[in-house]
From TrEMBL:
Keyword terms of this UniProt record: ATP-binding, Nucleotide-binding, Transport
Residues annotated as domain ABC transporter: 19-250
Stated name of the protein: ABC transporter ATP-binding protein
Alphabetized InterPro entries for the sequence: AAA+_ATPase, ABC_transporter-like_ATP-bd, ABC_transporter-like_CS, ABC_transporter_ATP-bind, P-loop_NTPase
Length: 264
């Protein structure tokens, strides 16, 4: 993951790229191939969604990108805007919060974890960072609550705030909103769009929800299964952040329909 980014010819790739997955294949033991020659590039500040049928290897691809899983063949290369290895953070479907910590302390935990990495120098800087993250994610009023005293949507906000505490160059989101009810989910999609715009981080989102993918992303990788492969890369050519009206617009519905047809 720390190797310099190379293109297919072996020359340094364009510095505007945050990530390049090049012909990534994965097979676990003697099982059927899970991923086959998946290639994907993501520019700095870009938000890319991955959609596809269950079992096509979306989570596996995300885990390979994060370095938690080694690809059988192919390579993933990453770099930050400064040219160094990027910091990545991961948001899962279920918020894994510390139940005995308040909302504030759960976010502070993410900040403290990184204090030793030189991101935050002093205690005051850490306290300010926590306050900023709480404000950014709409949690200031809930700072002294415990996780079991807030809704699932609020818990997921804490999860996002904690993930952002490391000031990630790349934020990986694996079905972050799928456990939420439809209304909460729509509201959080709008907030996630605003938060991403404010922090300017690069993002990769795995989702089953095509509408969510269209609403949030610049491009969508549509995958096919058995083995998992990229079927198409779809551009979502609308300025970000998207307005709440865009969520129910004809343009979004048309793109959603086109992707749905690809998947069925
Ligand atoms: N560590 C592992 N060992 C063996 N098989 C695995 C491992 N991880 C994933 N798989 C298999 O790889 C395939 C793809 O799994 P993955 O979770 O990546 O798919 P997905 O597209 O994210 O699915 P879903 O949309 O249902 O979450 C599945 O058949 C899964 O059982």
């Amino acid at each position: 993951m720390t190797s310099p980014m190379l293109d297919r010819q072996g020359a340094p790739a364009a510095p505007h790229l945050a990530l390049a997955a090049d012909r990534v294949s994965e097979q676990f033991g003697a099982g059927a191939p899970v991923l086959e020659n998946v290639s994907l590039t993501v520019e700095h500040g870009e938000f890319v969604a991955i959609v596809g049928p269950s079992g096509c290897g979306k989570t596996t691809l995300l885990r390979i990108i994060q370095g938690l899983e080694a690809a059988t063949s192919g390579a993933v290369t990453t770099r930050s805007r400064t040219g160094e290895a990027p910091r990545m953070s991961y948001v899962f479907q279920r918020a894994s919060l510390l139940p005995w910590y308040t909302v504030r302390d759960n976010v502070a935990f993410g900040v403290t974890l990184r204090a030793g990495n030189g991101i935050y120098g002093s205690k005051r800087e850490r306290d300010n960072a926590v306050a900023d993250l709480l404000a950014l994610t709409g949690l200031t009023k809930y700072a002294d609550f415990y996780p079991d005293q807030i809704s699932g949507g609020m818990q997921q906000r804490v999860n996002v705030a904690r993930a952002l505490a490391v000031r990630p160059d790349v934020l990986l989101l694996d079905e972050p909103l799928s456990a939420l009810d439809a209304l909460t989910r729509e509201r959080l999609q709008i907030d996630v769009a605003r938060i991403l715009e404010q922090v300017g981080t690069t993002g990769i989102l795995v989702t089953h929800d095509i509408r969510e993918a269209v609403f949030l992303s610049d491009r969508i990788a549509v995958m096919a299964a058995h083995p998992g492969r990229t079927r198409a890369i779809v551009d979502v050519d609308f300025p970000r952040p998207r307005t709440p009206e865009f969520q129910h617009s004809t343009e979004l519905a048309q793109l959603e329909r086109g992707i749905w047809e690809m998947l069925h």
